[in-house]
Design a protein that fits this description.
The protein is an alpha/beta fold and 328 residues long. The protein has ten helices and 14 strands. It has a seven-stranded parallel sheet, sandwiched between helices. The chain has a three-stranded mixed sheet with strand order 12-9-14. A two-stranded parallel sheet has the order 7-10.
Length: 328
């Protein structure tokens, strides 16, 4: 049977695709190339198009023996979601519902959903457990929470089984150095910091230096993208074995501040990285660190790259050998 991966040519999706292909799975990557790259296909079947195109989806489900969907396709810039919430609700909610409608019409009732720790908003407990109150502070996080809640209702009403994996800062690159992060524009901290090290940017902005944290910069949980891909495959295998729907937080349980990331990147690259203070961004919480004890316990998920330095080393291998990304 085949796996349909929406956003399969994007950052996290492409790493899941590579892992699936490496494990002998048939994979169909659906991507509209708004953030994806054909060079990230890793041997999967590629379909260029919009996940909200019902006619295209009907053709895909008719042509390929799709048995499950990994759903990565989403807009994910917190700041942009504050400025243009409509864009996020149309793409992350409306188009996802078209996808789910066509799944059910084709008899496909397994989904692995790429969610986010942004569903929690400003956390009251660190590290964040799965049953922590969900009070998102921006439309991006709200769109992820809305779809999680819809999936729960679709499970009850239509038997659509799902695993929702909540993570915040995917980082790093495949250890082979063959695929990695390539966004235009780039809004993730680690690749921006490494662009400064490469001389592609003059400096990195620190959005807020007055946060209630030890060094007064935001703290985030960075999880290696390959570890995330492994978690998606384990979740898929659990559903295939008859496991019930579930929600899992994805994190290392350790948070790193913006200043700590910059310092670690300077050590890895051996280059000075200029940082410039900037105003806070609306919708940003001070700390987001997710517990992953539940998925370790229930799915036996083993993070292979938990250290910040290792994460940055794999990212540096990709960025330093592919300064122009995939070049497409």
């Amino acid at each position: 049977m085949a796996i349909l991966v929406t956003g399969g040519l994007g950052y996290v999706g492409s790493h899941a695709v590579k892992l699936l292909v490496d494990r002998g799975r048939q994979v169909v990557s659906l991507d509209d190339l708004s953030y994806g790259h054909v060079g990230a296909a890793s041997g999967s079947e590629v379909v260029i198009g919009d996940m909200g195109d019902a006619r295209l989806l009907r053709r895909i489900f008719a042509k390929y023996p799709i048995d499950a969907v990994m759903h990565f396709a989403a807009f994910a810039d917190v700041g942009e979601s504050m400025q243009d919430p409509h864009k996020y609700y149309v793409n992350n909610i409306s188009k996802s519902l078209v996808l789910i409608e066509q799944m059910l019409a084709a008899g496909v009732k397994r989904m692995i959903f790429s969610s986010s720790a942004a569903v929690f908003g400003e956390p009251k407990d660190i590290p964040i457990p799965e049953d922590h109150p969900t009070e998102p502070t921006n439309p991006y996080g709200r769109s992820k929470l809305m779809l999680e809640e819809m999936l729960g209702e679709y499970d009850q009403a239509y038997g659509l089984k799902y695993m929702s994996l909540r993570y915040f800062n995917a980082a790093g690159a495949d250890p082979s150095g063959t695929i990695g992060e390539d966004h235009t524009p780039e809004h993730h901290l680690i690749p921006i910091v490494l662009d400064v090290a490469l001389g592609k940017r003059e400096s990195v902005s620190i959005f807020g230096t007055d946060w209630p944290t030890p060094d007064h910069t935001c703290i985030r949980d960075y999880i290696h993208v390959t570890d995330l891909a492994e978690a998606h495959l384990l979740a898929l295998e659990a559903l295939e074995a008859g496991a019930p729907s579930a929600v899992y937080n994805m994190g290392n349980g350790n948070g790193y501040s913006v200043k700590e990331v910059i310092s670690a990147a300077q050590e890895v690259t051996g280059r000075k990285i200029k940082a410039v203070p900037a105003p806070r961004r609306p919708g940003d919480p001070a700390r987001l660190v997710a517990s992953s004890e539940k998925i370790k316990r229930e799915l036996d998920w083993p993070p292979s790259y938990p250290e910040l330095r290792t994460i940055i080393e794999t990212a540096w291998l990709w960025h330093s050998t592919h300064p122009n990304g995939f070049g497409d």
